[in-house]
């Protein structure tokens, strides 16, 4: 059963301290899992927003649960119901503008996640029961947003500084059936755009810090997790991991696979592998099970000396800055 999260930021007010009409913004963050993490994260978001003559109220809902979305919209206390306004004096006391910002925490658009979130909003019972609706701002994706790419790069480089530089970085995205792509879904395109920008950032020396590049670009790969029983996006992460290990063993470093005495030698060239999932904004049990456990264990079985999962942005300062950057585009 859905549990109502605590109200964050308080009810939106219809006027500022001077009694004049003002803009009211309602932010609805749509996630799939981890309600507690999000409700802990969002109070830290409000102070990061730019100051101004606005009122902001934030709620969390789950796009896969229609009742969750309806309940969140009810908690917003929308002020745009002007049923009782009879003259110009009363109209002046109303909000000048009222906005609903919907932020699905899916960096790359997909019809099985983002579109479902859109349907949850537009088909909500709340809007069928009210005559007046706010301005609606729906963020489709933020796959190539500079603040998002900067957050990812900062998170990865910080992890590498603490754990050691990797020999390989596997950039892994959620899987998706190919039939969605052939029907016009842009998910694969956005994943590749994120990957291309992220690879460039990680493999380019930092001139400001005077440091060498973190890793060579040919040591950063893109792959997709398996998705159901249908033919899905390729290459699969399991195939990429196994293929690299096989290539290094046979020809990559010029070591013969037939020589059993060289077993320990070729494994040295595999070194350390890190997995990162840019499409996951908040870690959940499924991502941790698939990547942190199964894929990392596969790497170790194939000969990597070390394999680790770099956590998602979760409640990090980079996540706060990213969300504040996105919202500030709408909050004047």
Q: Could you explain the architecture of this structure?
A:
With 332 residues, this protein is of the alpha/beta class. The protein has 12 helices and 8 strands. Helices cover 39% and strands 15% of the residues. The strands form 2 sheets. A 4-stranded parallel sheet has the order 2-1-3-4, with helices on both faces. A 4-stranded parallel sheet has the order 6-5-7-8, with helices on both faces.
**Count of distinct structural domains:** 2
- The number of E-state strands comes to 8
Shape: elongated
Helix % is 25-40%
Characterize the biggest β-sheet. Answer: 4 strands, parallel
Structural class, by secondary structure, is: alpha/beta
Portion in beta strands: 15-25%
What is the typical, i.e. mean, pLDDT?
Answer: 80
How many individual helices?
12
Unreliable residue stretches: 1-21
Strand order, largest beta sheet: 2-1-3-4
- CATH topology name of the largest domain, in short, is Rossmann fold
Q: What is the CA-based Rg, rounded?
A: 24 Å
- N-to-C SSE string, H for helix and E for strand: EHEHHEHHEHEHHEHHEHEH
Task: Tell me the CATH architecture of the largest domain.
Answer: 3-Layer(aba) Sandwich
CATH class identity of the largest domain? Alpha Beta
């Amino acid at each position: 059963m859905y549990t109502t999260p605590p109200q964050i930021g308080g009810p939106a007010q219809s006027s500022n301290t001077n009694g004049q009409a003002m803009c009211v913004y309602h932010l609805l963050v749509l996630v799939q899992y981890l309600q507690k993490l999000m409700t802990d994260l969002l109070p830290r978001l409000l102070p990061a927003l730019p100051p101004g003559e606005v009122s902001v109220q934030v709620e969390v809902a789950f796009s896969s649960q229609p009742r969750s979305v309806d309940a969140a919209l009810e908690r917003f206390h929308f002020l745009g119901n002007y049923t009782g306004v009879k003259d110009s004096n009363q109209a002046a006391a109303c909000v000048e503008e009222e906005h609903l910002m919907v932020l699905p925490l899916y960096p790359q658009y997909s019809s099985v996640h983002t579109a479902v979130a859109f349907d949850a909003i537009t088909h909500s019972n709340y809007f069928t029961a009210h005559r007046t609706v706010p301005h609606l701002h729906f963020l489709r994706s933020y796959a190539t947003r500079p603040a998002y790419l900067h957050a990812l790069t900062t998170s990865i480089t910080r992890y590498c500084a603490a754990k050691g530089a990797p020999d390989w970085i596997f950039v892994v995205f959620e899987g998706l059936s190919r039939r969605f792509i052939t029907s016009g879904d842009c998910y694969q395109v956005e994943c590749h755009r994120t990957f291309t920008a992220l690879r460039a950032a990680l493999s380019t020396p930092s001139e400001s810090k005077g440091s060498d590049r973190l890793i060579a670009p040919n040591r950063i790969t893109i792959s997709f997790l398996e998705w159901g029983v249908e033919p899905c996006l390729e290459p699969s992460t399991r195939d990429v991991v196994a293929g690299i290990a096989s290539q290094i063993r046979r020809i990559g470093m010029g070591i013969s696979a037939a020589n059993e005495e060289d077993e320990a030698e070729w494994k040295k060239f595999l070194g350390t592998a890190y997995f990162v999932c840019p499409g996951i904004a908040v870690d959940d049990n499924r991502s941790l099970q698939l990547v942190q456990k199964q894929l990392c264990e596969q790497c170790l079985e194939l000969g990597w000396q070390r394999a680790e999962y770099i956590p998602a942005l979760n409640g990090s300062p980079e996540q706060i800055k990213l969300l504040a950057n996105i919202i500030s585009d709408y909050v004047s």
